[in-house]
């Protein structure tokens, strides 16, 4: 079960402003009309109650949104870069880390409810075109701004796994064996009682659906007070 991943997110840079002058039949030396660049796309996480693991992110190192487009003539605004939405399970904790192998970071977000939408990297702003820089003393500005860079950061995602099914029964009833048959989990299995002293989790995948199953330690009278553990 994939319950911890690290990767880099990169928002799009803002597009460049345009340096352009009107060229028309009756105005061969028209004024500036360079448009602004488009904003860069942002990266969002959205909590999806239909997901149970972070398997989609396994083996991936980077997710990037589109850059904003350059401004055009006639004060045409450049197109904004497209945002990307990455869907994660409910219970995903997001931390900012310094690199892929960093084990602990600063808490960024806790997507603990369904349909939460969190921006994890915001796109840069588009640069202003030369139309913006016209003035009575500078009627032909040849200046335009570059776009600002989009945010980029390394993130570590961990999942507070919530089981949909619990296997409950007496010690040595075969709960761990059943879990190992239904899923890829490999819990300790032995002929003595209380082999399982803490819950084991496994994921049952059937077609495109998945189900988290928890193998609960064997229950006896007094288990709620810690007896048997």
UniProtKB/TrEMBL annotation:
Start-end of Gly residues biased regions: 31-41
Obg domain: residues covered: 1-162
Keyword Transport: no
Keywords for this protein: Cytoplasm, GTP-binding, Hydrolase, Magnesium, Nucleotide-binding
Record GO terms (molecular function): GTP binding; GTPase activity; magnesium ion binding
PANTHER family xrefs: DEVELOPMENTALLY REGULATED GTP-BINDING PROTEIN-RELATED, MITOCHONDRIAL RIBOSOME-ASSOCIATED GTPASE 2
Name of the protein described by the UniProt record: Obg family GTPase CgtA
